[in-house]
């Protein structure tokens, strides 16, 4: 399915988020009853206030239910169209939204039938779903798709699991063909032998009125998931109503871009005996241009159909804050640590309800930022929802009630007739494999194996350091205003929020590429985190090394390097390079282009860099160290952020990204934003060697009155706390989720550069090209090496305006402020006002 793209507007389907009402009703005794659906519909209607209404006062943001497939009902429907089932369990139903254009609708039916034939699934026929459009609002009615069901049967020798996998493959095949033909209106809410979903652009009370099937007494189920959507900041849509195929989600996935990139990178590593030769049909795992909730559903669905149960997959994708828990059982800690080697968390505030048709459950994000309450009744009925009191049942029948806390779960297995509380869920998954033993045997801790250099540092060469600083974009302000406060105090310097200097793209000075990116922050219903008081839920752990198939579990999956921080000192980088294990072989890749080649040399150097990195990975290297150390009078450093983004996306395109991780040995990195951009665009760790040498030089010269070890420790502490602060602004808790998540907006970079090196990053305006980036790099290099004997750092003037027109331009400069004061003192003199306005209007443009 492909959501319509609007290339010429500020709308982007990636902005789709919602804040909703969600819940489920289930019989833990396993009894299938009409009452379960009735109570769920009642609960859904009682969550109607969590949705929104359009201006027509009738069109909602979307509502729906997921239930077990009512086999008796659909067995009767099969007979009505002349089919015959040997067993009611053989029936499956594909629920299909079709284009209203009949030619396109016919094409879509044909695509479905082709896919069914491809995977050997018998088609009984198509069924027009009874509906009552008169209850809808004008907007919902005008955008309503064609709604049909295809009734299906299975072969006698297929297990239930095999049947479900074939249905999944058929649905994926039809979706891909529809995307290839540009049919955006085609969508399948469900395609299963276990579950069926009725949903649409309704407010909650309209659902049962519109779908008259839901009024049938044959709609009996042991479980029902329900969802009322509230579209936070985007357009309601029939396709984006929930539940999805296995998930109903209230919240935001803040790390979505990164999750999508990493999932795409995993695709060519996928293998599983369950799928065999059909593995190629699973890709792409995530649908394009859908909401964050839909992508989460795609990921959970694949993992569940590949052999894990819903509890397992939910804990994999949205783990609790386990890293700093002291009393965590060893087996459970092993589970989380093992799965941290497999994938990054899908992080953000969320209440997630999940169901595969047999099991139903719910979990909260690691911060507990969405409401989720439950009641258990004496007859085994369980009601869970965003609010308490969703169904009208006697309080006297409640035997247990509670709310989900951060990272907690409940689940009901209707086949085993069992209610799982949080401890039960976690004991269940922790005992599936000897995860703790695997991690003990395979995980390599860098902290336990890297030994400091001690007194073996070579003396700092002042001239060489100065040339590197200039080439890497340093100015004296970077030392006095940024580096010194971090070294002396162990914290970022405090400054005002105002910035009256030009955007990087509009500055007359050659700005580093990092400053073309602005950090995003949590908005609307998406709360940030307090990185000081909520530090316990945050983690900077990094797992490095080649990753194996996401769909399998073996001891070898835990063969990873554990870093406790993305900040590496030189001795740690040296230890990383020299691990005596072929599984952790490293390759150092120089990031430079030749001065003699001019601006055009950057493009060729980037291509060569990508090929060298790809060849190294193909040759078995699992650690790539991107370095700009090899800079001299003839070699110009490639901007490290450009190198990281280019290599990251090249390896994804080549299907090699999961085989290796990247470390940056960067002369540019010295402030928190630079670290954040490098990590946010794919680096696992950063060694800021010029910053370290600068600290050493200033300590040795007495400019920094502090012991070297303490100063370096303070610098690392300040960088780490700053990274946590930036993550927390976007509501992200773990570095694993932040890495590669691209939580930035590009401002003033050309679309060609963004699409090539920072693919998926939001950008609203055009800007500098690759050639202009190269010109800035050459200009910095010339400042250093054209006359190296007299080269010295410039003052800069970004933080404090310089006199005489030197340094960076400031909008509120001395002439502007002075003329304003003169006018305010004598407002009756028009010449003073004209002088003031002339100064304002003559300023250099600082923003578009």
In a few lines, what is going on in this structure?
With 848 residues, the chain is α+β, with helices and mostly antiparallel strands. 35% of the residues lie in helices and 16% in strands.
Reconstruct the topology from this structure.
Layout: E1 21-27, H1 34-45, E2 63-68, H2 71-80, E3 92-98, H3 102-118, E4 122-128, H4 138-142, E5 146-153, H5 160-180, E6 187-192, E7 195-200, H6 206-210, E8 223-228, E9 247-251, H7 256-266, H8 292-305, H9 310-317, H10 330-340, E10 350-355, E11 359-364, E12 373-377, E13 381-385, E14 398-403, E15 409-413, E16 418-420, H11 422-430, H12 435-442, E17 444-445, H13 446-449, H14 462-471, H15 476-489, E18 517-519, E19 542-544, E20 561-563, H16 570-577, E21 586-590, E22 592-594, H17 600-618, E23 623-627, E24 635-637, H18 640-653, E25 661-665, H19 672-680, E26 685-687, H20 689-701, H21 708-729, H22 735-738, E27 744-746, H23 751-757, E28 762-763, H24 770-785, H25 814-825, H26 830-841
Parallel strand pairs: 17-20, 21-23, 23-25, 25-26, 27-28
Antiparallel strand pairs: 1-8, 1-13, 2-7, 2-8, 3-5, 3-6, 4-5, 9-10, 10-11, 11-15, 12-13, 12-14, 15-16, 18-27, 19-20, 22-24
Structure description:
This protein is 35% helix and 16% strand. A hairpin with a 3-residue loop joins strand 12 and strand 13 (381-385). Mean pLDDT is 93; it is low at 1-11 and 13-18. It contains 26 helices and 28 strands. Helix 14 crosses helix 20 (689-701), helix 17 packs across helix 18 and helix 19 packs across helix 21 (708-729). It is globular. The chain has three domains: 13-429, Glutamine Phosphoribosylpyrophosphate, subunit 1, domain 1 (4-Layer Sandwich); 458-491 and 507-785, Aldolase class I (TIM Barrel); 811-848. It has a seven-stranded antiparallel beta sheet with strand order 7-2-8-1-13-12-14, with helices on one face. The chain is α+β, with helices and mostly antiparallel strands and 848 residues long.
């Amino acid at each position: 399915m492909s959501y319509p793209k609007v290339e010429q507007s500020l709308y982007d389907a990636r902005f789709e988020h919602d804040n909703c009402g969600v819940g489920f009703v289930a019989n833990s005794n396993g009894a299938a009853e009409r009452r379960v659906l009735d109570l769920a519909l009642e609960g859904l209607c009682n969550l109607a206030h969590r949705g929104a209404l359009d201006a027509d006062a009738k069109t909602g943001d979307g509502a729906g239910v997921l239930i077990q497939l009512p086999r008796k009902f659909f067995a009767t429907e099969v007979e009505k169209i002349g089919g015959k089932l040997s067993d009611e369990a053989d029936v499956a139903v594909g629920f299909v939204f079709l284009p209203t254009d009949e030619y396109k609708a016919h094409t879509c039916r044909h695509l479905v039938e082709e896919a069914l034939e491809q995977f050997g699934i018998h088609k009984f026929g198509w069924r027009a779903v009874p509906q009552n459009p008169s209850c809808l609002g004008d907007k919902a009615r005008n955008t309503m798709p064609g709604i049909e069901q295809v009734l299906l049967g299975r072969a006698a020798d297929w297990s239930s699991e095999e049947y479900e996998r074939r249905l999944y493959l058929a649905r994926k095949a039809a979706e891909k063909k529809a995307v290839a033909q540009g049919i955006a209106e085609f969508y399948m809410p469900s395609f299963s032998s276990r579950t069926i979903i009725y949903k649409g652009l309704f407010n909650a009370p309209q659902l049962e009125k519109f779908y008259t099937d839901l009024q049938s007494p044959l709609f009996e189920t042991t479980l029902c998931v329900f969802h009322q959507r509230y579209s936070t900041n985007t357009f309601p849509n029939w396709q984006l109503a929930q539940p999805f195929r296995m998930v109903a989600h209230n919240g935001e996935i803040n790390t979505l871009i990164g999750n999508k990139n990493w999932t795409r990178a995993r695709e060519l590593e996928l293998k599983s005996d369950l799928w065999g030769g059909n593995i190629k049909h699973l890709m792409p795992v995530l649908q394009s241009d859908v909401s964050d909730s839909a992508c989460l559903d795609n990921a959970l669905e694949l993992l569940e159909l590949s052999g894990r149960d819903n509890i397992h997959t939910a804990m994999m994708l949205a783990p609790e804050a386990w890293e700093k828990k002291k009393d965590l059982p060893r087996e459970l800690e092993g589970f989380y640590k093992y799965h941290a080697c497999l994938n990054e968390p899908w992080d953000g505030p969320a209440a997630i309800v999940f169901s595969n048709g047999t099991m139903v459950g719910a979990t909260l994000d690691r911060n507990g930022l969405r409401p989720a309450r439950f009641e258990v009744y004496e007859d085994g009925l369980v009601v869970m929802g965003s609010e308490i009191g969703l169904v009208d049942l006697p309080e006297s029948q409640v035997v247990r009630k509670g709310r989900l806390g951060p990272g907690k779960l409940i689940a009901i297995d209707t086949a085993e007739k069992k209610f799982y509380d949080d401890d039960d869920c976690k004991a269940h998954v922790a005992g599936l494999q000897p995860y703790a033993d695997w991690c003990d045997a395979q995980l390599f801790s860098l902290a336990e194996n890297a030994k400091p250099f001690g007194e073996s540092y070579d003396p700092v060469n002042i001239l060489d350091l100065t040339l590197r600083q200039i080439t890497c974009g340093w100015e004296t302000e970077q030392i006095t205003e940024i580096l010194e406060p971090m070294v002396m105090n162990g914290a970022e310097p405090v400054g005002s929020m105002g910035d009256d200097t030009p955007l990087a793209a509009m500055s007359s000075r050659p700005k580093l590429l990092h400053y073309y990116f602005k950090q995003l922050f949590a908005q609307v219903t998406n709360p940030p985190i307090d990185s000081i008081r909520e530090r316990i839920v945050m983690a900077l752990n990094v797992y490095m090394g080649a990753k194996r198939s996401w769909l399998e579990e073996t001891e070898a999956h835990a063969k990873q390097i554990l870093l406790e921080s993305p900040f590496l000192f030189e001795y740690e980088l040296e230890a990383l390079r020299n691990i005596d294990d072929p599984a952790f072989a490293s390759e150092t890749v120089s990031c430079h282009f030749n001065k003699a080649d001019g601006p055009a040399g950057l493009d060729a150097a980037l291509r060569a860099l990508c090929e060298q990195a790809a060849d190294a990975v193909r040759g078995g290297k699992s650690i790539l160290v991107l370095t700009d150390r090899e800079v001299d009078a003839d070699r110009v450093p490639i901007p490290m952020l450009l190198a990281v983004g280019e290599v990251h996306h090249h390896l994804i395109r080549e299907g090699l990204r999961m085989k290796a991780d990247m470390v940056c040995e960067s002369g540019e990195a010295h402030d928190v934003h630079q670290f954040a951009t490098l990590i946010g665009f794919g680096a696992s760790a950063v060694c800021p060697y010029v910053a370290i040498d600068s600290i050493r030089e200033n300590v040795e010269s007495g400019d920094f009155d502090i012991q070297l070890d303490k100063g370096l420790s303070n610098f690392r502490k300040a960088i780490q706390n700053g990274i946590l602060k930036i993550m927390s602004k976007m509501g992200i808790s773990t570095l694993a989720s932040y890495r590669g998540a691209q939580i930035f907006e590009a401002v003033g970079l050309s679309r060609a550069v963004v699409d090539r090196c920072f693919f998926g990053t939001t950008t609203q305006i055009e800007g500098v090209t690759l050639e202009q980036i190269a010109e800035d790099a050459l200009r910095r290099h010339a400042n250093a090496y054209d006359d190296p004997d007299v080269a010295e750092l410039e003052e800069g003037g970004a933080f404090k305006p310089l006199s005489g027109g030197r340094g960076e331009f400031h909008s509120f400069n001395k002439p502007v402020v002075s003329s304003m004061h003169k006018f305010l003192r004598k407002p009756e003199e028009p010449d003073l006002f004209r002088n003031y306005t002339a100064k304002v209007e003559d300023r250099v443009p600082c923003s578009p």
